[in-house]
Amino acid sequence: MTKLFSYSVLAAASALAAMGAQAQEFPASGRPITIVVPFTAGGPTDRVARDLALALAKPLGGASIIIDNTAGAGSSIGTAKVARAAPDGYTLLLNHIGMATMPGLYRKLPFDVEKDFSYLGIVNDVPMTLIGKPNLPANNYKELTSYIAANKATINLANAGIGSASHLCGLLFQSAIKTELTGVPYKGAAPAIADLMGNQVDLLCDQTTNTTQQIEGKKVKAYAVTTAKRLTTPGLKDLPTMQEVGVAGFEVTIWHGLYAPKGTPPAIVKRLNDALKVALKDPVFVKNEEALGAVVASDKRVEPAEHQKFVAAEIAKWTPIIKAAGVYAD
């Protein structure tokens, strides 16, 4: 029994030593890390990934970090690519709220969001704004609700495509006001905003990264922000929150998180998480995120376990809303 105990202690000590060495050696000199972005280049998520890659490289010993844009099917193609990758820390995923909405949007996915990834931490939150066309009669949220009540059969709500951030925000808005509006899907946020400014559609709920300039330039009417607190951005600080105008519990932010394939060694997960925490405090990264209208994560969600709990809660939040709307993307 004593010998067996000794062998067990030695085995455990050897395993710990191996894990420690593994973390110290990661990333290996000359071997790049790839961050898969499941969207096309040039979009908000791609920009976040490229800024994050620069900030992550420093605490990872100057590692080379490559961005791989594998877009399509509402981010599920790129996400599946990472789920299938070797769990060695060299292939990561940066994805947004789509990680929480894909389980509700797709009848069948080639991966399980909650089981097939090692969670590394939340990166940021991007607020959203509810805006209207320039000639909409309503000038504030109270007037807007009255206008909707009187004209709900003819009012339309634009979005950037099924499963997009604006689509999800729109679904939650309709659920909150218990009114179904006519949806007008576009192939991206840019054409949706262009038509809104041209008075071709009535309403849109989209990210500050896409709406701040139009709001500041008074090219659209702004009614509320979707955060729990008012924003500090000069052109948006006077906008009330949805909760302030009476929509209890309405809070939507388009968060981004970092992931590795399931089975990534705990020592490497810790190494990546430690590096992420340093990157999130990098002054250049913070400045770049503020320019996008994003808020860099600084709460407990930067911890892997809390990140996973948060995504599970977001899945529970969005799935019934998506299913109630009867929206599916096969």
TrEMBL record:
It holds the Pfam family TctC. The keyword Signal applies. Gene3D superfamilies: Bordetella uptake gene, domain 1, Periplasmic binding protein-like II. InterPro entries: BUG, Bug_dom1. Keywords: Signal. Residues 1-23 form the signal peptide. It comes from the Bacteria. Belongs to the UPF0065 (bug) family. This is Tripartite tricarboxylate transporter substrate binding protein BugD. It comes from Xylophilus rhododendri.
